[in-house]
Amino acid sequence: MTCEVCGASINGPSSTIEIDGAFLKVCSNCSKRGTPVSSEAAVHRAPTPYSREEGRIDEGLEVDPEYHSIIRHGREQLGLTQEQLGRAINVKPSVISHLETAKMKPDILLARKLMHQLKVNLLVPSDELDSKASQRVDP
User: Fold this and answer.
1) Is the domain of 84 the same as that of 108?
2) Cβ–Cβ contacts within 10 Å for residue 111, how many?
3) How many domains does the chain divide into?
4) How far is 56 from 70, CA to CA, in rounded Å?
């Protein structure tokens, strides 16, 4: 068995710790890096909304095609610079610039951070996008 933190071979008993919601089997050296938990607690914990077994809560949602203008408008409404927004959501200002110029499309996690910070909606149901796309196609 190998330590899930450092990758070293575990000789003797392993420990189960929690780090940021993840339960890991670790060696004795890495056991101080997290909160100790019993092996039974790790096995019988309730699944989180993001567990693979249950599927993501974001299934069926996609980033709005107009994300670039929504982000810029939301930032300007709050009177924030690209630097201030980047600092608030822990990304570089260049990422905000790339988003606002549509050079980069946010993933779901980044979209959620932006939605929370800017108080805007960037996610729309996939089927709604499909129906809009089919309406744009001329016969």
Assistant:
1) yes
2) 24
3) 2
4) 24
- Vertex 104 angle, CA 102 and 108, to 5°: 110
CATH number at residue 116: 1.10.260.40
Q: What is the token pair recorded at 84?
A: 């201030």
Residue 128 lies in a domain: yes
Which residues are CB-neighbours of 48 under 8 A, at least 6 positions away? 21, 54
Query: pTM here?
Result: 0.56
Print the domain residue range for 22.
Answer: 1-45
Stretch 121-133: mean pLDDT? 78
How far, in Å, CA of 64 to CA of 124, rounded? 6
Q: What value does the mean pLDDT take over residues 74-103?
A: 95
38 and 66 together in one domain: no
> Per-residue pLDDT averaged across 80-107, rounded?
94
The residue type at 124: V
